[in-house]
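Sat 14:20. Reprocessing the chain from the morning session after the first attempt stalled halfway. Input below, unchanged.
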Amino acid sequence: MATAAESWSVGQAEIAGKPVVYKFINELPDKKLRDMMTWLTVVSWKYDGSSTNGMPAKDLNASMIKLENGLVSIVGRGDVYYEVYTATGNNLKEFVFYITDRDVFMSHFNKALNNHPAYPIEISFYEDKAWSDLVKLHTDFGIKTNKESQRAQ
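Finished this time. Tokens:
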């Protein structure tokens, strides 16, 4: 879910005593894109990881990879949506995007997953004009976001 121009990191945190693995973009996109995409969108897949320390079992993880591969094919990256991170662990898989419009995004989302089985997912939308969710994740992993570059980009 990344392009060659972006750099991504992988990091691990602990939530409620369980490991959570994050894959996230290292830098905020330019201000024009951020101003256009003000809706934080979280695709969540809850599961029972009680026998695997909160992580998905092998067969479940394979299904999650199929979902992720479908999400890669969503049309409109950079115009309709921009993916920023995934989180896996503590009985939850999340795919996180910023989007321009909920209806347009959902139309593209459904088209991309048209030939997939129904996944046990929930999709939540939160207004986040400041991209504070991604900024907090960067802060949590010690990535400094230059405030001047946030305004100027």
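The radius of gyration is 16 Å.
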